[in-house]
């Protein structure tokens, strides 16, 4: 139980294009999902908190117009990197909190999406 | 502010050696504490957790005890295997916001 999937697992795109990454909770409802970015050999940096049915809350320094987050249902959140540039290349990881409260303070992580912008 | 400090890696051990990865934290209130493991090219997997003082989390031979008096959550394993080679992250979860604060990660390499 408590499985989170991400799609795609990796993507290569040209500079200037937009890329959408999906995060799904497969066997539980998630009112809250989190998006992280991880640079090589570094820790995870929280980008934003995604709440179902409302606007995402972005961490300081994260451009909300560049990283669009939509959390339209209790099982799906999407991150769209708009007008991607090579410096956006990174490993993006999502996590979800179980609304049902099995482990109310715990996040369940997806396998990550590696984005490479050429 | 709230923070997690982990010992810097990389840590290189021989198979069957004893492992300790130190983790200390600073937080207001009573956070939950976690250890996650990340294998190359993958996301994070929960290794163990503790939600209150003196709790001991354990899994796959790994253990960590929530020490409020020393604000620590050190990870230990009595006998490591080559398959334990990975990056280990200590994290705390803040009550109310459910946000995680991660340590910088410690890379472990176990040699046969």
Question: Would you kindly provide a written description of the structure presented here, covering whatever features stand out?
Answer:
The complex is a heterodimer of chains A (118) and B (112). With 118 residues, chain A is mostly beta strands. Chain A is built from no helices and 11 strands. In chain A, strands 2, 4, 5, 6, 9, 10 and 11 form a 7-stranded mixed β-sheet that branches. Chain A starts with a strand and ends with a strand. The radius of gyration of chain B is 13 Å and the shape is globular. The interface between A and B is medium-sized, with 22 and 23 residues.
Number of helices of chain A: 0
- Classification by helices and strands of chain A: mainly beta
Order of secondary-structure elements of chain B: EEEEEEEEEEEE
Largest sheet of chain A: 7 strands, mixed
**Structural class from helices and strands of chain B?**
mainly beta
Estimate what percentage of residues of chain B fall within beta strands.
over 45%
Q: Helix share of residues of chain A?
A: under 10%
Q: Helices and strands of chain A, in N-to-C order?
A: EEEEEEEEEEE
Tag the structure with descriptive keywords.
heterodimer, A: 118 residues, mainly beta, 4-stranded antiparallel sheet, 0% helix, B: 112 residues, 12 strands
